[in-house]
C-alpha cells in the first residue's frame, strides 16, 4: 500500500533513472494527454510530495501522478522485458537511452505547467518527508476539527501529507488510543508527541524495503494486518474494522486492551463500546532494527 515512504522510494528510483537525461520515448496512455510528445526534452528531477509524484521536464512541464491503492512505477534497463502487469494497465512510458520508466494502473496522470503544480498539490498539509515539514502547523491542522476521529484526521492529506492506513493504525497504537477517539480528546502530551513520532516512523522506513514500526525481530508491525492475532504487548487478539465515510473500505486495526477510546459498532466489523484504558503507552524505539 503506497504511503509517504513508499512514494519517496519511487521518486528516488525514477530520479536516478531519468534525471539529467533526454527522453527518446514518451507515451501517455490517457485520453486527455495521448497526443502529448515529450521526446527530446530532458527530465530535470522527480520529486515526491506526500503521496504524489512530480516529474519535472525541460520546457516548464510537470508530469503529475498518484499511485493510490494499486498504481506503481517500474524502471527497466534497455531491452529488458516489462513485467509490471498486462499492457492494457500501462498508463505512461518515459524512456531514455538506457532506462525506461513504466507507470502501471496510475489512477491520476496529468501533464501540467510546472508553475501550476499548486493546482495538483497545493492543498496538501506539511509533508512528513519534505522540506516544508512543520510539526506545529501539522498539529494545528489536526486539532482544527476537535470532534473528528483521529484516524480520519491522520488520513486527511490536507492536515499532514504522507500517512496512509498502515501508519494510521500504528500511530494510534503507539499513542495508546483508538483511531475513533476524537482528536480533541487526545491528551496534550500525546498530541504534542504525534507529529514527532509520525515523522520518525516515515524517516526510519524511507530507505527500507520492509516497513517496520516495532523495532522487534521478525515482528514488523504492532497491529496492522494482525486481526485476531495476539497483541505484541498484551497478547489480547487484535481487532479490525473499517473507518471512513463508507465511500472506500479503509482497514483499521487496534488492540482493545492497549488502546483507549471509542470503537466501531459491530456492523463495521469491529467491537462496539469503549476499549479498556491502556496499561501504558510507551513503545520500543522504532529506530532500533535487529534484522
UniProtKB/TrEMBL annotation:
One function term, GO molecular function aspect: zinc ion binding
Family that this chain belongs to: Belongs to the FPG family.
SMART domains the record matches: Fapy_DNA_glyco (SM00898), H2TH (SM01232)
Formamidopyrimidine-DNA glycosylase catalytic domain boundaries: 2-103
Ranges where the record places region Disordered: 238-291
Protein name: DNA-(apurinic or apyrimidinic site) lyase
Record has Nucleotide-binding as a keyword: no
Amino acid at each position: 500500500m503506497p504511503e509517504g515512504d513508499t512514494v519517496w522510494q519511487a521518486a528516488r528510483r525514477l530520479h536516478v533513472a531519468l534525471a539529467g537525461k533526454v527522453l527518446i520515448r514518451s507515451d501517455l496512455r490517457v485520453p486527455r494527454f495521448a497526443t502529448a510528445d515529450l521526446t527530446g526534452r530532458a527530465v530535470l528531477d522527480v520529486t515526491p510530495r506526500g503521496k504524489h509524484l512530480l516529474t519535472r521536464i525541460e520546457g516548464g512541464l510537470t508530469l503529475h501522478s498518484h499511485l493510490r491503492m494499486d498504481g506503481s512505477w517500474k524502471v527497466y534497463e534497455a531491452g529488458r522485458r516489462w513485467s509490471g502487469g498486462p499492457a492494457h494497465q500501462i498508463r505512461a512510458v518515459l524512456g531514455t537511452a538506457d532506462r525506461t520508466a513504466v507507470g502501471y494502473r496510475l489512477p491520476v496522470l496529468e501533464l501540467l505547467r510546472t508553475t501550476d503544480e499548486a493546482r495538483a498539490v497545493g492543498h496538501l498539509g506539511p509533508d512528513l518527508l519534505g522540506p516544508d515539514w512543520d510539526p506545529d502547523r501539522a498539529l494545528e491542522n489536526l486539532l482544527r476539527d476537535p470532534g473528528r476521529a483521529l484516524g480520519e484526521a491522520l488520513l486527511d492529506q490536507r492536515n499532514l501529507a504522507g500517512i496512509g492506513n498502515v501508519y494510521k493504525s500504528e500511530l494510534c497504537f503507539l499513542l495508546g488510543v483508538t483511531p475513533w477517539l476524537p482528536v480533541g480528546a487526545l491528551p496534550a502530551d500525546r498530541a504534542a508527541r504525534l507529529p514527532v513520532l509520525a515523522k520518525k516512523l516515515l524517516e526510519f522506513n524511507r530507505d527500507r524495503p520492509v516497513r517496520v514500526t516495532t523495532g522487534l525481530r521478525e515482528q514488523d508491525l504492532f497491529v496492522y494486518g494482525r486481526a485476531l492475532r495476539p497483541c505484541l504487548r498484551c497478547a489480547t487478539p487484535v481487532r479490525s474494522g473499517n473507518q471512513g465515510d463508507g465511500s472506500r473500505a479503509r482497514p483499521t486495526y487496534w488492540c482493545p486492551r492497549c488502546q483507549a477510546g471509542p470503537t466501531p459498532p459491530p456492523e463495521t466489523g469491529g467491537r462496539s463500546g469503549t476499549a479498556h484504558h491502556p496499561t501504558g503507552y510507551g513503545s520500543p524505539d522504532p529506530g532500533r532494527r535487529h534484522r
